[in-house]
Amino acid sequence: LYHAIPYFADNRIARTFGKDLTEEKPFAIPDPILIAGKTPQPELEATRYDLEPVTFRAIDFSSENGAGATLIFDRTHTFAQAAPMRYRHEAASGGSLNLTLPSRLQSGERHTLRYAIYAHPEAVTIEQLRRIADEEGLH
What we know:
Order of helices and strands: EEEEHEEEEH
Oligomer: single chain
Structural class: mainly beta
Radius of gyration: 16 Å
Strand content: 35-45%
Shape: flat
Protein backbone atom coordinates (compact mmCIF):
# COMPACT_ATOMS: atom_id res chain seq x y z
CA LEU A 1 0.00 0.00 0.00
CA TYR A 2 1.43 3.37 -1.05
CA HIS A 3 0.60 7.03 -0.82
CA ALA A 4 1.73 8.38 -4.19
CA ILE A 5 2.79 11.95 -4.81
CA PRO A 6 2.76 12.53 -8.57
CA TYR A 7 4.74 15.37 -10.09
CA PHE A 8 5.15 17.05 -13.46
CA ALA A 9 8.77 16.42 -14.46
CA ASP A 10 9.47 18.56 -17.53
CA ASN A 11 11.54 21.72 -17.07
CA ARG A 12 11.40 21.50 -13.29
CA ILE A 13 13.97 22.10 -10.59
CA ALA A 14 13.46 20.12 -7.41
CA ARG A 15 14.97 20.44 -3.97
CA THR A 16 14.38 18.70 -0.66
CA PHE A 17 14.50 19.98 2.90
CA GLY A 18 15.56 18.00 5.96
CA LYS A 19 14.01 17.36 9.35
CA ASP A 20 14.12 20.89 10.78
CA LEU A 21 13.48 22.58 7.40
CA THR A 22 16.92 24.19 7.37
CA GLU A 23 19.04 21.88 5.23
CA GLU A 24 18.31 22.21 1.52
CA LYS A 25 19.52 19.68 -1.08
CA PRO A 26 19.01 19.54 -4.83
CA PHE A 27 16.87 16.60 -5.97
CA ALA A 28 17.80 15.25 -9.39
CA ILE A 29 14.60 14.46 -11.27
CA PRO A 30 15.29 11.24 -13.20
CA ASP A 31 15.19 11.33 -17.00
CA PRO A 32 11.79 10.27 -18.33
CA ILE A 33 11.28 6.82 -19.83
CA LEU A 34 9.56 6.87 -23.21
CA ILE A 35 6.87 4.20 -23.48
CA ALA A 36 4.86 3.06 -26.48
CA GLY A 37 1.40 3.58 -25.00
CA LYS A 38 -0.73 3.82 -21.90
CA THR A 39 -1.04 0.06 -21.47
CA PRO A 40 1.02 -1.62 -18.73
CA GLN A 41 4.53 -2.61 -19.77
CA PRO A 42 5.87 -4.93 -17.06
CA GLU A 43 9.35 -5.03 -18.61
CA LEU A 44 9.77 -1.33 -17.76
CA GLU A 45 8.66 -1.57 -14.13
CA ALA A 46 12.08 -2.68 -12.90
CA THR A 47 13.67 0.28 -14.71
CA ARG A 48 11.14 2.77 -13.34
CA TYR A 49 11.52 1.64 -9.74
CA ASP A 50 15.27 0.87 -9.69
CA LEU A 51 16.09 4.20 -8.07
CA GLU A 52 17.48 5.08 -4.66
CA PRO A 53 14.90 6.04 -2.04
CA VAL A 54 14.86 9.70 -1.03
CA THR A 55 14.31 11.04 2.50
CA PHE A 56 12.95 14.50 3.25
CA ARG A 57 10.48 16.53 5.27
CA ALA A 58 9.61 18.92 2.43
CA ILE A 59 10.09 18.88 -1.32
CA ASP A 60 9.76 21.72 -3.80
CA PHE A 61 9.10 21.44 -7.54
CA SER A 62 9.57 24.73 -9.40
CA SER A 63 10.07 26.15 -12.85
CA GLU A 64 13.19 28.16 -13.62
CA ASN A 65 11.47 31.39 -12.49
CA GLY A 66 10.80 29.88 -9.04
CA ALA A 67 7.04 29.40 -9.39
CA GLY A 68 5.88 25.98 -8.26
CA ALA A 69 4.59 23.95 -5.36
CA THR A 70 6.08 22.68 -2.12
CA LEU A 71 4.87 19.76 -0.02
CA ILE A 72 5.64 20.11 3.68
CA PHE A 73 5.16 17.04 5.89
CA ASP A 74 4.70 16.80 9.64
CA ARG A 75 7.90 14.75 9.88
CA THR A 76 10.66 13.24 7.74
CA HIS A 77 9.66 10.32 5.48
CA THR A 78 11.51 8.05 3.06
CA PHE A 79 9.94 7.72 -0.39
CA ALA A 80 10.46 5.19 -3.16
CA GLN A 81 10.91 6.84 -6.54
CA ALA A 82 9.13 6.00 -9.77
CA ALA A 83 10.96 7.50 -12.74
CA PRO A 84 8.90 9.83 -14.93
CA MET A 85 7.20 8.31 -17.96
CA ARG A 86 6.41 9.92 -21.27
CA TYR A 87 3.79 8.31 -23.54
CA ARG A 88 5.11 9.92 -26.72
CA HIS A 89 7.75 12.53 -27.53
CA GLU A 90 5.28 15.45 -27.47
CA ALA A 91 3.59 14.44 -24.21
CA ALA A 92 4.45 15.77 -20.78
CA SER A 93 6.30 13.44 -18.44
CA GLY A 94 5.33 12.71 -14.88
CA GLY A 95 6.94 10.78 -12.06
CA SER A 96 5.97 9.97 -8.52
CA LEU A 97 7.32 9.60 -5.04
CA ASN A 98 5.71 6.74 -3.12
CA LEU A 99 5.44 6.43 0.63
CA THR A 100 5.02 2.84 1.79
CA LEU A 101 2.13 2.50 4.22
CA PRO A 102 1.45 -0.46 6.52
CA SER A 103 -0.38 -3.22 4.65
CA ARG A 104 -1.90 -4.52 7.86
CA LEU A 105 -3.09 -2.69 10.93
CA GLN A 106 -4.06 -4.13 14.27
CA SER A 107 -7.51 -3.36 15.61
CA GLY A 108 -7.54 0.24 16.80
CA GLU A 109 -4.13 1.04 15.33
CA ARG A 110 -3.84 4.37 13.51
CA HIS A 111 -1.43 5.57 10.88
CA THR A 112 -1.49 9.29 10.12
CA LEU A 113 0.13 11.27 7.34
CA ARG A 114 -0.18 15.05 7.45
CA TYR A 115 1.13 17.53 4.94
CA ALA A 116 0.40 20.88 3.35
CA ILE A 117 0.78 21.80 -0.31
CA TYR A 118 1.98 25.37 -0.79
CA ALA A 119 1.73 26.91 -4.28
CA HIS A 120 4.08 29.83 -4.79
CA PRO A 121 4.60 32.38 -7.59
CA GLU A 122 8.33 32.76 -6.89
CA ALA A 123 11.09 30.76 -5.21
CA VAL A 124 10.11 29.65 -1.73
CA THR A 125 12.49 30.33 1.17
CA ILE A 126 13.31 28.25 4.21
CA GLU A 127 11.72 30.96 6.37
CA GLN A 128 8.45 30.60 4.44
CA LEU A 129 8.52 26.82 4.83
CA ARG A 130 9.02 27.07 8.59
CA ARG A 131 6.22 29.64 8.90
CA ILE A 132 3.80 27.44 6.94
CA ALA A 133 4.74 24.37 8.99
CA ASP A 134 4.01 26.37 12.17
CA GLU A 135 0.72 27.77 10.83
CA GLU A 136 -0.46 24.31 9.74
CA GLY A 137 0.63 22.63 12.98
CA LEU A 138 3.07 20.36 11.14
CA HIS A 139 5.47 19.68 14.02
